[in-house]
């Protein structure tokens, strides 16, 4: 299920869409969203392979960078 939400950074606030209850064990940003929001990032020591729900490798390839985000839901950091 895709859910619209407001994404706030130090530089701007924008409306985005999140995939709800995807079963992912981490939070991910699309690289286009990352570029548009100009969020800082750090290179990972080892790239991470991303797999889709069906077990296939994700077509965008490995994750090479990470960024730290504080996620708030209903006024609480989650």
What is this entry, summarized?
The protein has 78 residues and is mostly beta strands. 9% of the residues lie in helices and 37% in strands. It is built from one helix and six strands, in the order E-E-H-E-E-E-E.
Write the layout of secondary structure elements.
Blueprint: E1 2-8, E2 13-19, H1 31-37, E3 42-48, E4 63-66, E5 72-73, E6 76-77
Antiparallel strand pairs: 1-2, 3-4, 5-6
Structural summary, described in words:
This protein has 78 residues and is mostly beta strands. The chain has one domain. It is 9% helix and 37% strand. A hairpin with a 4-residue loop joins strand 1 (2-8) and strand 2 (13-19). The model has no long low-confidence stretch (mean pLDDT 80).
Keywords:
two-stranded antiparallel ribbon; 78 residues; globular; mainly beta; 9% helix; 1 helix
- The count of DSSP E runs of length 2 or more, i.e. the number of strands, is 6
Taking the alpha carbons of the first and last residues, their distance comes to 19 Å
Count of runs of 4 or more consecutive helical residues:
1
Percent helix = under 10%
Instruction: Write down the secondary-structure element order.
Output: EEHEEEE
Reading side by side through the largest sheet, how are the strands ordered?
Answer: 1-2
Q: Name the beta content range.
A: 35-45%
State the shape.
Answer: globular
Q: Averaged pLDDT, please?
A: 80
Instruction: Show unreliable segments.
Output: none
């Amino acid at each position: 299920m895709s859910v619209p939400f407001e994404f706030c950074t130090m530089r701007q606030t924008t409306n985005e869409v999140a995939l709800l209850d995807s079963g992912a064990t981490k939070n991910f940003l699309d690289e286009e969203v990352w570029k548009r929001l100009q969020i800082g990032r750090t290179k990972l020591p080892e790239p991470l392979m991303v797999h889709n729900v069906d077990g296939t490798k994700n077509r965008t390839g490995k994750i090479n960078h990470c960024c730290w985000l504080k996620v708030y839901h209903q006024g609480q950091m989650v």
